[in-house]
Amino acid sequence: MSGTPRVVCIGIATVDAIVAVERLPASDERVPGLDGRLAGGGVAATAAVTLARLGVATAFVGRVGDDATGRWIRDELEREGVDVAGLRLTAAPSPVSVVLIEAASGLRSLAPYLGGGAPIEPTPADLAVAAAADWVHLDDLGVAVLPTLVGAGIRTPVSVDDGIGVRDVRLDAVALYAPTERVLRARFPGATLEASLVAALAAGPRLVAATLGEAGSAAAERRPDGRVAHHRAAPFAVPVASTLGAGDVFHGGLLAALVAGRPAGEALRRANATAALACRALDGRSAIPTLDELDAFLAASGGGTLGTETHDAPT
């Protein structure tokens, strides 16, 4: 996707070694593989690919090794139309993830290696691209860049994907906080899911969107009048080969809809559909839909609002 990047994704880019098995092996046990492949992965990188597939000009900032694996990761992102000028080749080993997929359920076990975990250090050119974008999207590695963005005076809204429970996230500097339900409830305990969403909203973001696994997704949005709108989007039924990368795809789909100016409830539904379609393949990327494919799927599923509940509640 050419053009000035509208979203800058900062964080992890990996190569995934994926094998489908009948069941996950026990310690020191050999289980035959049913299928296997190599594919690009990584939280922020897969969100970037999703955005590019959906027609949003996107850049990626991160680091990989100056080796065959790192160049493969870079070339795959570039082939998808992602601007990789900010992807550095370094002396550290490239990130690699081993993924086992349970064939019957599509659930997975992961062993990610982040290549030593050296911090990402944006260059002045990276910061200029971020300042000119509509959104900056950070994953659990990229979130360490947030103080740099704040210190540079960058006013671009920031989205944070919190799938693992990232510590010390400055939510007062974040516009969109996107945790899993488990992370949300652990960080912001509440009697109900809506109470946890409101508690997270009070920490600073203007939108909090939580993935609920097979139950879809939910969000709370702070309105200009100070009231809170709650949104709930139902899941989509598709044949599931794997849930690998589904959360990363959800966040890319959510940002693509917000960039297009869609309201939060509709954006939530479109993100659900994008993630569901991505689950049709064993890897986390090859089945990510294009914008035309997504629109056709939604039209066949009843349009842009069916399955979304929106109501106002006082803060």
Structural notes for this entry:
With 315 residues, the chain is of the alpha/beta class. It has a single domain (7-24, 35-313), classed as Ribokinase (UDP-N-acetylmuramoyl-L-alanine:D-glutamate ligase, 3-Layer(aba) Sandwich). The chain has helices at residues 43-53, 68-79, 124-132, 146-151, 181-187, 193-202, 246-259, 264-278, 291-300, and strands at residues 7-10, 14-21, 33-41, 58-65, 83-90, 96-102, 108-113, 135-138, 158-162, 176-179, 207-211, 217-222, 228-233, 308-313. The strands form 2 sheets. Strands 5-4-1-8-9-10-11-12-13-14 form a 10-stranded mixed sheet, sandwiched between helices.
What topology does this entry show?
Blueprint: E1 7-10, E2 14-21, E3 33-41, H1 43-53, E4 58-65, H2 68-79, E5 83-90, E6 96-102, E7 108-113, H3 124-132, E8 135-138, H4 146-151, E9 158-162, E10 176-179, H5 181-187, H6 193-202, E11 207-211, E12 217-222, E13 228-233, H7 246-259, H8 264-278, H9 291-300, E14 308-313
Parallel strand pairs: 1-4, 1-8, 2-6, 4-5, 8-9, 9-10, 10-11
Antiparallel strand pairs: 2-3, 6-7, 11-12, 12-13, 13-14
How many helices does DSSP assign? 9
Proportion in β-strands: 25-35%
Rg estimate, integer Å:
19 Å
User: Can you tell me the CATH topology?
Assistant: UDP-N-acetylmuramoyl-L-alanine:D-glutamate ligase
Largest sheet: 10 strands, mixed
Question: How is the quaternary structure best described?
Answer: single chain
Quick summary:
By secondary structure, this protein is α/β, with parallel strands linked by helices.
